[in-house]
Amino acid sequence: MRAAAHRARARAGVRFRIRAVLTGLLLLGLSGTAACAPDFPAEGDQLTVIGPWTGVEEKAFREQVLDVFEEEHGITVHYEGTTAIHELILSSTLAGDPPDIAIQSGLGELADYHRRGLLQELPPGIVDEANQRAAWLSQPSGMPSRYWVPVKADLKSIVWHRGDAPPDRADVSEWCIGMLSDATSGWPGSDWIEDILLQQAGPQVYEDWASRELAWDDEENEAVATAWRTWLDFMHGGDGGAGKYAEEALTTDARDRLLFDDKAACALEHQGSFARTFYPDRWFGLDFTPSAGLLPANPPRGDYHVVSGDFAVMLRESDEAELLLEFLASEEIQRLRAATFEATSEEDGDEAGLLPPSFSADRRVTDELYTRNDDPVGARIVRELDGADALCLDASDVMPPVIRRVFHEAALESLAWPWPPPAETPGPGPEQQDPLPAKLADIQRVQDELPGDTPRFDSVCG
């Protein structure tokens, strides 16, 4: 009955307009920043936006947000969804023709763009900071002005399951785990390690690590090594043991609809609130439990959550671009995206179903909106955001891009290690040693070699 009500509301409230994508995903095979960049329009009454949303998410963004902006302001917006935002920004800038606005999740990458002089300063008051949750206002130390605005928020440190009964703590055999995600493969592993570290060590240690104050291989505070070992012990346990589930995770896509896949036969999925978009026809049958009570870690120290977000930046200065950024971050649009369901149809080439509403860093987007829209799980997510002892941005998202990539790669590599490592015995053979200390030292070595002007986020928790 709830699904039918959602569909009826979507048909009544959402306008269907089909507009062609003007530029394809040109950079899926990009190997360097010198590749050819698309030609972005530069007319004053047109804007080009690139962002991470494709498929039904792109359709929702066009119809719920961009169509409204075009109608209100008479400015045409060309949107291109791509998984290669970083490469596209660098290549188009090299070609002297960047898009007007870019939307992406990695604040570490945005800070790097600022270091390179690619971002345009935003005017004061472009986002209502007094009503934003603190974590999404994080900036590198020494950045006096605002260069990005939060346009979407997600809650992590949660575990999805079918139905509404909280599950018991389970071994790895009960979990849906996939490490693959195109160019960003490995991020689910970094998410596990970050969440375990936050629950084991607390937000201050987590923040010190994310901001490069705590070394990866610190010998006095081994929080990173402890969290990583906890994850590997968990991944190599379960029925069958001997790395069976670790190996399966290395060949499974994180975006597969695992909770409703009979072949997967799993019951728990460690994903953020965005995971509901993976299930366009089944998300209203999902419920969640905070991860602290389910993770393979010590008893929770507090009500802590990792969070993430999507942020918009201006690459080409204009009054029109500033107007769109202010529009994207406005209370009106944030509330609209939280209260509107985007219907999809097989005729449009999308899988039949409904796209769930988005979440916001704006406190004025309250749980009442989701309750009114018959989305009790969405309302609970907002209450978790409001009631948490600490909300900490995804650590890898605020790390410099090279460290983020190395972290993802190391998470993948470590799943292929024999585990637990054999006890060390005399002799130089690497097979006789625990590989984790050397791997953490390698990551720290890369971090130590960063340029001196690499941005650093002093605060990522709020």
From TrEMBL:
Coiled coil: none annotated. Residues 1-37 form the signal peptide. Residues 418-429 have a biased composition (Pro residues). It comes from the Bacteria. Residues 418-462 are annotated as: Disordered. InterPro entries: SBP. The keyword Signal applies. Keywords: Signal. This is Alpha-glucoside transport system substrate-binding protein.
